[in-house]
């Protein structure tokens, strides 16, 4: 083989080696890029998984808070209902106690009023008795008034079936029909609510006259 051929072969081999080296470098670079890409993908996946876990934990915490809030609201509503029912029960008990108290006292008031109506006021010897009965009666009425018990005395007023109980009816000249002409027993209200109707006598219209008679 000539010297020139040998030289050409050596140059060719050197070019092939250079190309091979370049290919190897490119391939290695590509492999490194691929590895970095895979690593980056793994990092992103890990971060995304962490984000998903945090979002799930947040959603769970928010749901728990919402449930607890609803429980607190329901508990508060139940407590309010219990307090309201207790207050109503206390009020009913108070009213019942007052009605019973008032009923007992009204019997004494009625008896004292009857005593004053029937006693001979012209007799001087009864003066002290009359004053004592009047003072006692006034004391009872004042005490009842403090507890919201007030008399219903409809003398000369229109008859009201919601407050009065008609015991009899009578025609009275010059008096409009359906007027209370006498109060046989006073009625009483407790805090605006009727606890005893007034027993009354009511006027009635005169019978119509048949003009053809």
UniProtKB/TrEMBL annotation:
Gene3D superfamilies: 3.90.20.20, Head domain of nucleotide exchange factor GrpE. NCBIfam families: PRK14139.1 (NF010737), PRK14140.1 (NF010738), PRK14150.1 (NF010748). The lineage of its organism: Bacteria, Pseudomonadati, Pseudomonadota, Gammaproteobacteria, Alteromonadales. The gene is grpE. Belongs to the GrpE family. Residues 44-122 form a coiled coil. This is Protein GrpE. It is found in: Cytoplasm. It comes from Colwellia psychrerythraea. Participates actively in the response to hyperosmotic and heat shock by preventing the aggregation of stress-denatured proteins, in association with DnaK and GrpE. It is the nucleotide exchange factor for DnaK and may function as a thermosensor. Unfolded proteins bind initially to DnaJ; upon interaction with the DnaJ-bound protein, DnaK hydrolyzes its bound ATP, resulting in the formation of a stable complex. GrpE releases ADP from DnaK; ATP binding to DnaK triggers the release of the substrate protein, thus completing the reaction cycle.
